[in-house]
User: What shape does this take?
Amino acid sequence: MKGEKPLYKSSRFERQLPLIGSEGQKKLENSTVLIAGAGGLGSPAATYLALAGVGEIIIVDDDNIQESNLNRQFLHSAASVGRRKAYSAESTLHELAPDASIIAHPIRIDRTSARQLVRDADIVIDALDNYETRFILHDSAWAVGIPYIHGAIEGFSGQLTSIIPGKSPCLSCLIPGTPPGGKIPVIGATAGVIGSMQAMEVIKFLTGTGTMITGRLLIWDGLSGRSEYLKIGRRKNCHFCSDHGE
Amino acid sequence: MKVTIRCYARFRDAFGEEQEIDLPPGSTVRDAVITLAKTGPDAELLVDDAQNIRSYVMIMYHDERISPIDAGLITLADGDLIILFPPVSGG
Ligand SMILES: [Zn+2]
Assistant: This one.
């Protein structure tokens, strides 16, 4: 956790203080959240966390903004096409929440950078778009014992689970294989639902309220309005968490 | 007997949101998935050439996750519901 800051003097948090208390608000202010990906999931997740009063947000993305991102990635405006996503996210978040400290890293997540990034964070949001990078980041978060809030989307569907080292199965237990990739179509509102739920998981964890979606995978389908929870147990002989233990 | 299979995401696009399928008594979860796969042009999304369920297919049955490898060991009853979900990867 970072050094303490004075409690917010304005009425900015008036409507949420009855829910989380000034203690909860203080916890948010003293926390650092690492958001990996400033795209479809990263936009709502980072926005709601900055607005909620999270003290420090580290946002990582090595991509540049493309016009085709704009149906869902509302951290970036049409005028920002071609800019680095990390820097565009930083300026948008700074405008929305001037008191939050936003740290932008326009870098690729690999084994080395992941280890550095998780070291400064209390919790990680997986707003990535591929499993290769997800596993790298997940393994680093697991190694330092911080929660990893996994989200992913396709079309009108999404999934989410909160992985808490020592308490829940790991990402490898959950995802033994992935279907063939390709260019994935997505409706912006799908990213909005899952990314907002990721922010909610972080708020619950940091303020110690509610029940995390852990040990179960939320499966959500916007087209039918259905959702399911898939119970996820530890996989026998999981190559990752049976080696790394609790 | 009749069992219902509910599909999510890419599986829903390929096989419909819900299908009721007819199976002989004693059929397993694997039999049900193979039968469903044959109803669409994208059978290979669910099963390989040897009719084994692909490793990424998430199967939910009676609120429990079933590993594709174990699907042939679980015998169905009339009126059962199976839920199929492919991990999605976008962000
Ligand atoms: Zn595991």
Remarks:
- Chain A has one domain: 10-243.
- The radius of gyration of chain A is 17 Å.
